[in-house]
Amino acid sequence: MLKAKYLVSILLFITLSAGLYSLSLAQSSSNEDLEKAPDFEVTTLEGNSVSLEKSVEENKPMVVYFTASWCPTCAKNWPVFSELYPEYRDDLNFISISIDPTDTKEVISNLVEEEDITYPSTWGHPNIMVDFGVQAQATTVGINRDGYIEFVKSNTALSKEEYQALFDQLVSAS
């Protein structure tokens, strides 16, 4: 009887240990199939520094939106992002980066004012677009808390509900 209890205890310990080990492997390998996002740092129109490194340090996912002042598809996304940004500002970092080097600080400042854009924005940085491998404006990149790219929506305008689903996915991922 004592031998049976001892065997059950050992089997229980082995089972629990294997389960915990499997769980830790699953958590550590969750980024294996994802591409690491390139680090970048920009200054917003308000003078704040935004970087992927800082977002990872804060343990917050990030959304990077590549835009251009002349882009009609981008213009469809601006009001959607402006509507959603207040809802997500505490849960994820957001930056809109112009890909056009002629989008100067003044051009983007005027655009933000004219279009009533509420989220952090910066002027022409085509080099960041190249670093990300992005090939078109109106591209949204979702980056998880560990700095890995979870999704890329290229050259498209999405609905509020579609962006909410993507943002919720980023925020709820551990």
Automatic annotation (TrEMBL):
InterPro entries: AhpC/TSA, Thioredoxin-like_sf, Thioredoxin_CS, Thioredoxin_domain, Thioredoxin_ResA/DsbE_sf. Residues 31-172 form the Thioredoxin domain. It comes from the Bacteria. Coiled coil: none annotated. CDD domains: TlpA_like_family. SUPFAM superfamilies: Thioredoxin-like. Signal peptide: none annotated. Keywords: Redox-active center. Pfam families: AhpC-TSA. PANTHER family: THIOL:DISULFIDE INTERCHANGE PROTEIN DSBE (PTHR42852), THIOREDOXIN-LIKE PROTEIN HI_1115 (PTHR42852:SF17). This is TlpA family protein disulfide reductase. The lineage of its organism: Bacteria, Pseudomonadati, Balneolota, Balneolia, Balneolales.
